[in-house]
Design goal:
Elements lengths: L28 H9 L1 H11 L2 H6 L6 E7 L6 H20 L16 E8 L5 H6 L8 E6 L12 E7 L32 H25 E12 L11 H18 L5 H5 L10 H11 L2 E8 L11 H20 L4 H14 L13 E8 L3
Parallel strand pairs: 1-2, 1-4, 2-3, 4-5
Antiparallel strand pairs: 5-7, 6-7
Helix pairs in contact: 2-4, 6-9, 7-11, 10-11
Length: about 375
């Protein structure tokens, strides 16, 4: 199996870096809620599905665990996810006591050495990430910049792969949606949520291509028996894309830009040539794509229950959440001058809606997916 190498120039869409009021660091509580909700599922997955003796015996370093978090962003959510995995592996180690480790010296509480690799695009704010590394962490840390749609590690190297709230970002905007001659041209819109079927299919096809590339690369990098732990924002199979709350918000952002074209603040051509490279798949899409890959068994795929974790209870948090995620992308295309105007308009539209601030209307489910690397 060889890497296709098609993603050397994958588009980079970094979230807002730094520690300021619009930063991802300050405005990612929704994503953190998903990671918190997955803690027990990760623990159960590792205890049940990770064969400590078999996997470590087949590895080059029998007392080292290599873990990569793909799409780590700027923290602190990535540190929480890594901590959950490390603690689960430590518990597994205590319960199984791998036969190749010497337990005669009881004061060694952690005979396994953990090496964690934090991955994101080259433009990610790694300075902020590493500045906030937990001082009491029980692992060695390294940064690995690059697109996770391509190879980043040697063959049969990683034991665990984790990615949370990252795989819905596409490697690029589907080319058809900005092509005036294509039936999928998305004129007057910046997203697929309420667009025609051709636009939706273009987005869906791009996601399928990207997830296949991600899985193909990870199949080469994971040891046999290694685990992939994913949290993916989804649209349930019974819902339309436009029923997803976050999809609706991105579509609402598009309507703000259209309003600004009518006022002469933004050119119509600029709006027509801009689309947000994000796609929320259904569970059946994720299952089908993984099945086509063939290198992984699906050990678990279920909806995360995040109702008891922090969501976005007020207007300011909802607006800042989207600004932290999308402002860099919008700035790159439209320039910095219109950002405050755009998000003020967006804030007003969210405030006037009866949908977004009502918790009962929050339809943005997260899918927890556990994959295991097959022997073939």
């Amino acid at each position: 199996m060889e890497s296709k190498g098609n993603y050397e120039f994958a588009e980079s869409h970094p979230v807002n870096g730094g520690e300021g009021p619009y930063s991802y660091l300050q405005n990612s509580t929704l994503q953190r809620g998903a990671i918190e909700a997955s803690k027990e599922m990760i623990k159960e997955a590792i205890l049940k599905h990770f064969d400590m003796n078999k996997t470590l015996d087949s590895a080059s370093f029998s007392n080292q665990i290599f873990l990569a978090d793909f799409g780590c962003s700027t923290g602190p959510n990535t540190f929480l996810a890594v901590q959950n995995i490390v603690e689960a592996v430590q518990l597994k180690c205590q319960l199984e006591k791998p036969h190749h480790l010497d337990h005669s010296d009881d004061h060694h509480q952690n005979p396994i050495i953990f090496q964690v690799f934090f991955n994101d695009h080259f433009a990610n704010d790694f300075n902020t990430l590493f500045k906030s590394l937990p001082p009491t962490r029980k692992y060695l840390a390294a940064g690995v910049p690059g697109s996770f749609h391509d190879r980043l590690f040697p063959n049969s190297f990683l034991h665990f792969v984790h990615s949370s709230c990252a795989l819905h970002w596409l490697s690029k905007v589907p080319s058809q949606v900005t092509d005036r001659t294509s039936p999928a041209w998305n004129k007057g819109r910046i997203y697929y949520a309420n667009a025609g079927e051709q636009v939706k299919k273009a987005y869906s096809d791009q996601f399928a291509e990207d997830l296949m590339s991600f899985l193909r690369a990870r199949a080469e990098e994971l040891v046999v028996g290694g685990l992939i732990l994913l949290i993916i924002p989804t649209v349930l199979d019974i819902l339309l894309p436009s029923d997803n709350t976050i999809n609706m918000e991105i579509d609402l952002m598009g309507s703000c830009l259209v309003d600004m074209t009518k006022m002469g603040l933004v050119s119509e051509e600029k709006v027509d040539s801009f689309n947000v490279p994000v796609y929320f798949p259904s569970p059946s899409e994720v299952e089908a794509i993984t099945g086509r890959n063939g290198h992984f068994s699906i050990e678990s795929m279920e909806k995360l229950n995040i109702e008891n974790h922090v969501l976005l209870p007020n207007l300011q948090m909802r607006v800042l959440y989207l600004r932290a995620a999308l402002e860099g992308l919008l700035q790159k295309h439209f320039g910095n001058e219109i950002m405050d105007e755009l998000f003020n308009r967006f804030s007003n539209k969210v405030a006037q809606s009866s949908i977004f601030l009502n918790p009962e209307n929050h339809k943005s489910p997260f899918l927890f997916v556990l994959l295991k690397r097959n022997p073939h």
